[in-house]
Amino acid sequence: MLSDLSASRLSSEHVVEIHKLWTVYKTPEAEFVIHKDLDLNIARGEVLSLVGGSGTGKTTLLRQILGLEQPTKGDVMVLGAPASELGSQGAASRVGMLFQHGALFSAFSVLDNIAFPLRELGSLPDDLVEECAMVKLQMVGLGAEHAHKMPADLSGGMVKRVALARALIMDPPLLLLDEPTAGLDPESSDGFCALLRSLHKELGLTVVMVTHDLDTLYELSTSVAVLAQQKVVVKAPPKDVIAYPHPFVQEFFLGERGQRAMELLREYPFAV
Ligand SMILES: Nc1ncnc2c1ncn2[C@@H]1O[C@H](COP(=O)(O)OP(=O)(O)O)[C@@H](O)[C@H]1O
Ligand SMILES: [Mg+2]
Which of 21, 121, 249, 268 is deepest in the core (most CB within 10 A)? Predict the structure, then answer.
């Protein structure tokens, strides 16, 4: 329980501490145990890739870290406080989230999308809010000429960049990404990875990323957590996870598509 997570135990190097987490969904016919006694600690500055089969609860775990969803049992601590206490207002200043789907409000311009969380707070004058949004637009590599475009007029890669700018509008130390490069062409995907990599370096962000894309994983991750059998079966640097004797790990990393990405691992010392 929370009581034994005393202040002294909340070591400053852990941005996320998940302890004995259970997620159970009940239907009238059956009960689905998604997470069972799952433990996961994420250190400051880590870029953690979360991998696992479809339906293993990766997105659910991100939502629980964000405080959008409550686990059935167990503790999710973010920056030393229960994730459930982040609240919708406080959340954006502590955790930024890039959702897999529905990234932008289609009726808002690029600038208004980025400004949204700050405007919601209502504590800053509008010209300052716009100025902040403009800085973030440039931070994600987009020029001011894109500020008044509508989402429908953007490429997939640009949508992701704008969504990232919005996630970072309040300078959160923790960034959550759900399949950030899924659906992007290889060039946009490479560009987005390079952007994430430089932001991680410049801003000292801690990043938790769900991805199936091995190129993205090898380029960015300092560690990989594998979700299988309702828990994190291994969490380690990529080169150690690859050697872990678990059927999912072997198939995911060393199957046909994994071979090509192995080449990349040799090329990117950052990942090892
Ligand atoms: N609110 C919910 N009610 C019932 N089942 C849910 C709910 N949210 C997720 N699930 C189920 O939990 C499982 C894990 O979902 P999800 O976290 O989206 O998996 P992943 O992102 O790993 O593919 C899925 O089987 C999904 O159908
Ligand atoms: Mg998912």
Answer: 21
**Residue 123 belongs to domain spanning:** 44-67+85-271
> Any idea of the CA torsion for 211, 83, 124, 120, to the nearest 10 degrees?
70
54 assigned to some structural domain: yes
Cα gap 75→21, rounded to integer Å: 6
* Pocket-testing residue among 21, 22, 27, 34, ligand 1, by greatest number of atoms within 8 A of Cβ: 34
The ranges of the chain with pLDDT < 50 are 1-10, 269-272
Q: Within a domain: residue 17?
A: no
Domain holding 210: CATH number? 3.40.50.300
Give nearest CA residue, ligand 1 atom 5. 25
Per-residue model confidence as pLDDT tens digits over 133-166: 999 999 999 999 999 999 999 999 999 999 999 9
The tally of domains found in the chain comes to 1
Cβ of 65 closer than 6 Å to ligand 1, yes or no, is no
At 147, phi and psi to the nearest 5?
-60, -35
- Is residue 231 within 8 A of residue 35, CB to CB? The reply is yes
Distance of CA 59 from the midpoint of ligand 2 (Å): 4
